[in-house]
Amino acid sequence: MNSSGDFESLVKLNADYFKKAENLDYEEGKGLCFLNIANVNSTEGDYKKAHILLEKAGESLRNSQNNFHRAKFYDSYSHYYSHLKQYDKAIFYSDSALFFLIKAPDSELKKRLLPRIYINRGTYYAWKGQMGTALKSFRKGQALENSAYSNCMLAQYYLYTGKLDSARIYALRAVEMMGRQKTTDIERLWIYYTAGYYYSKIDHVSEAEKMLKSALELSIKTRLTYSFHIKEIYKALAELYEEKKDKERAYFYLTLYQQEDNRLSQARVEAINKTTDGFISEAKKDSDKRKNDLWMIGILSFIVFSVSGASIWKNIQYLKRKKRTLKRETDTLKDKVYKKKREEVIELAKKNDSSFLMKFKEMDPEFISRLFILNPDLENSELAFCALLKLRFTSKEIADYTFVQHKSIQQKKYRLRKKLNIEGDMDIYEFLDRV
67-90 as b/e, with b when 16 or more CB fall inside 10 Å? Predict the structure, then answer.
């Protein structure tokens, strides 16, 4: 269900198993249900709720005598911290997962989880820049699971390190193996995306387009759970058509990318709240018999302990206050996240990093969309220049960071004024602030 994107059924299934575990007084079973929902929330970006769920799972699993359960628990924590880009913590928890899994008795579950831990570790080390250690982890995972997915991840590693000959071997092997192995939709998506990215790098545009379109179809199919993938495919298609000088289709997919990015920031968390709150409700029904209040997952919901009308009324008022408090906390958290993104983007600009424009688009997609409305023919270099001005960099700073003369920056400003029809008496910074 998770791999096919059937999130609603996944939550309902865990609600059913939670009730069974409650009836059996099987504490670890309840912990595993919390863990399953935590993983989906991590994937979908609701990190606050994911952390609450992981803490609830930890009450049941952290000190379990079942080493497989403990390995699953720590692996989920490493997954959570990787989404927060805290790779040191991700590796620490991955080490813990590996330690307990190796101690667990041999089983099909162990056989399936062990290579994935190594592959995930490879990803964490790669993002940290420890490429040698990353490659060792990827190869260890592939040795244990020579699958389409493991070859795909090696292809991504070689694409990331710019070794296109090696990337070709593993990308094409992944596509070939996918045709004869049982491969989940989400793994097939990654394989098509990786192959498309490879073909784009070597300027085989028709093959790249074919692979990325296949990835797009799968992304649409699995978007309920893995909705964040589709925007990356839109972006890859936009870059592909930009390379082909097909500005109309490049603009079309760039617009879809920006719309999807905006949609995700609003609708995704709302959808998770709705389905997860249903899981909370089911869990609460079978938890009233406990002596102490049991704080559940989600938006600081709580289990009604008293059955009297007065107590219920008080609890409802209390919950309303909690919701208001949570909203304030959420708004504050959003502000902090935005400020952190802005700081990261500014640092990339100062380093003249090639990923600056991409990260700026993620932070402020509407700005880029509106620039395209003003002039659809703007080049990436001009968009990056607009982004630097939007961030209030001075001409001298831009010249220093991009290693050009101050005179060149003034010329760029002049050309930009013409392209955006900025009146002579209008300050360019003020104009871009209004965009």
Answer: bbbbbbbbbbbbbbbbbeeebebb
